[in-house]
Design a protein that fits this description.
Number of helices of chain A: 4
Radius of gyration of chain A: 14 Å
Order of helices and strands of chain A: EHHEEHHEE
Number of strands of chain B: 0
Helix content of chain B: 55-70%
Low-confidence stretches of chain B: 152-181
Radius of gyration of chain B: 27 Å
Number of strands of chain A: 5
Strand content of chain B: under 5%
Shape of chain B: elongated
Largest interface: A-B, 23 and 27 residues
Structural class of chain B: mainly alpha
Strand content of chain A: 25-35%
Largest sheet of chain B: none
Structural class of chain A: alpha+beta
Distance between the termini of chain B: 57 Å
Mean pLDDT of chain A: 86
Oligomer: heterodimer
Low-confidence stretches of chain A: none
Number of helices of chain B: 11
Order of helices and strands of chain B: HHHHHHHHHHH
Mean pLDDT of chain B: 79
Strand order of the largest sheet of chain A: 1-2-3-5-4
Distance between the termini of chain A: 20 Å
Largest sheet of chain A: 5 strands, antiparallel
């Protein structure tokens, strides 16, 4: 299993780094363009949500990419506010920025987990996606 | 985003699907267009015009409304999001994704190379990544990927007798094929650049990265062409020494 970790300030202009890591990974392992695009959109949504909910003093967003066989898991954790109970529902409502972002991630990945950050402060969003569709 | 009340949507869907009320269908489309636009926005800036993507997303929305199953017991939005995204992805599959990636990056790299020159002239300085990406109508990330894939400069290319030539090296940028796997070379180059002072670095950058001629650099920096020539020679010498020591 290989892991890549990224820590960026919770600011919009840093979000694109989270996508660049995926581009880098796509050179280390084979990721179809369509899959890569799905992953990029998903990680962008997750990080953008972390940025929107960042505490006033800023803070960081941690992104962790774990490649295990042909499954990539991406975990985005930040000190931002936790997910509201409405967002944890399968049909997030109201469909505001956060609600749509999460619905979009859900539409693009195989697996999605929402919860509290590992240290209990902030939120954690993790999703995984199979990189190839051959061995089903 | 204006979100129509749940009850309204359900009523409209029923009116359309059960009674064939086309006005209800139109209202549903209209009220959910912000959703289609928002999703299209997530995919904009990848060589596709936002307005084109909105069109594609709207087709997805209409499909979602037309195919919506009242019995399934989900919200229209829940069903519409994957349908709209699917439509957008189909659009990319037919166009962008069908093009071989290295080739696309290479073409973009060539385009960017040209733009660096143009923008440097109009701005009087090297453009930032944001400016470059905006001019090429791609997002910054894609611009960065393309630049990176084309940066095949090596320590070797500094050993040529460039000091008096006015050959435009820009022509070689982006056409050099073995673009990947030259990270070590770039690291070496970065090491070399560190040995330079600010003015030397700027001149080396203008000469080799932006492809300006010595005369153009002279105008840009406000010194004579002879002086530029001397500084380039001295800079390259410093870089070579620094790299040899590494």
């Amino acid at each position: 299993m290989s892991s890549v970790r990224l820590r960026i300030p919770a600011k919009a202009e840093y979000v694109f780094f989270s996508r660049l890591v995926l581009t880098g990974l796509s050179r280390a392992t084979v990721i179809e363009e369509e899959t890569l695009s799905d992953l990029k959109v998903a990680v962008t949504e997750a990080c953008a949500r972390s940025v929107r909910s960042a505490p006033d003093e800023g803070g960081d967003v941690s992104v962790r990419y774990d490649l295990d066989g042909d499954v990539l898991t991406v975990e985005v954790a930040s000190a931002g506010s936790e997910f509201s109970p409405e967002l944890l529902e399968l049909e997030p409502h109201p469909l505001d920025e956060d609600g749509m972002g999460i619905a979009l991630v859900r539409a693009l990945v195989d697996d999605l987990e929402l919860g509290a950050a590992p240290d209990g402060r902030g939120s954690r969003l993790a999703f995984s996606k199979k990189l190839s569709r051959r061995s089903d | 985003m204006k979100s129509p009340a749940k009850a309204d949507q359900a009523q409209l869907l029923r009116a359309y699907h059960e009674q064939g009320d086309t006005q209800a269908r139109e209202r549903l489309i209209e009220e959910n267009l912000p959703l289609a636009r928002a999703l299209a926005g997530r995919y904009a800036g990848r060589g596709e015009q936002f307005e084109d993507l909105v069109q594609v997303a709207s087709i997805g929305l209409i499909k979602a409304i037309d195919r919506f199953d009242l019995e399934r017991g989900v919200e229209l939005e829940t069903y519409a999001i994957p349908t709209i995204v699917g439509e957008i992805k189909r659009h990319f599959r037919d166009r962008t994704w069908a093009v071989h990636v290295p080739r696309r990056l290479k073409e973009l790299n060539l385009k960017l190379s040209g733009l660096v020159g143009e923008l440097s002239n109009t701005l009087g300085r090297s453009p930032t990544l944001a400016e470059l990406a905006a001019a090429a109508d791609v997002d910054q990330e894609e611009a960065l990927e393309a630049i990176e894939s084309g940066q095949a400069y090596t320590a070797d290319s500094l050993s040529g007798d460039d000091d008096d030539s006015e050959v435009d090296r820009m022509q070689t940028l982006g056409t050099v094929e073995p673009a990947y796997g030259r990270a070590e070379d770039r690291d070496l180059l970065a090491t070399g650049l560190e040995a330079l002072d600010e003015r030397e670095r700027r001149i080396i950058h203008l000469r080799f990265f932006d492809g300006l001629t010595q005369s153009q650099i002279a105008v840009e920096v406000g010194i004579s062409q002879m002086h530029v020539s001397r500084l380039i020679r001295r800079g390259l010498e410093k870089m070579r020494r620094e790299i040899d020591e590494t």
